[in-house]
Amino acid sequence: xxxxxxxxxxxxxxxxxxxxxxxxxxxxxxxxxxxxxxxxxxxxxxxxxxxxxxxxxxxxxxxxxxxxxxxxxxxxxxxxxxxxxxxxxxxxxxxxxxxxxxxxxxxxxxxxxxxxxxxxxxxxxxxxxxxxxxxxxxxxxxxxxxxxxxxxxxxxxxxxxxxxxxxxxxxxxxxxxxxxxxxxxxxxxxxxxxxxxxxxxxxxxxxxxxxxxxxx
Length: 216
Fold this sequence. Notes:
- Helices cover 53% and strands 6% of the residues.
- It has 216 residues and is α+β, with helices and mostly antiparallel strands.
- The longest helix is centred in the middle third of the chain and has 25 residues, at 127-151.
- The protein starts with a strand and ends in a 9-residue tail after the last helix.
């Protein structure tokens, strides 16, 4: 048993990001699944842990609660410096954060499970409507992301240079989610190439949704 606990859901892209970071940092943790589709994240026992009722929630070894995937990942990077997930110089750090936030702040929030569920309950959307919504917002974000990555000399094997970091974590988790909704990756060869490089790494493989104890 570990004294670090991660409450998460195998399909959650935010949980996926944190699992990748924990694997990259070599941090062991206890995995507590919270099935979002079964409403386990809204049960009183979990709300007592995380009042927001979202995943992931990381309980650190000293009992500190951390939520929000980007905050958790930056905490891990600041407390466990190797391997670094953000570059050292400010311009490069800003670029990596920019790329990560294009996914985490612009694409993911409108395609979160609770938003997709609201499309159904509030507006009567069917499966095809929901899938079209998801693909629309991915394409809105991936179009400019592809252009930025392709045009920048700072893009290497990964989003920034030759080592995977914060932006790659967000990219890989998003591409994994895209597959469930049939997003066509043909227009995004650079993103697809970077994702393939990520998925060749053991940390990304171990953190993949299909390799979790609650995978269905």
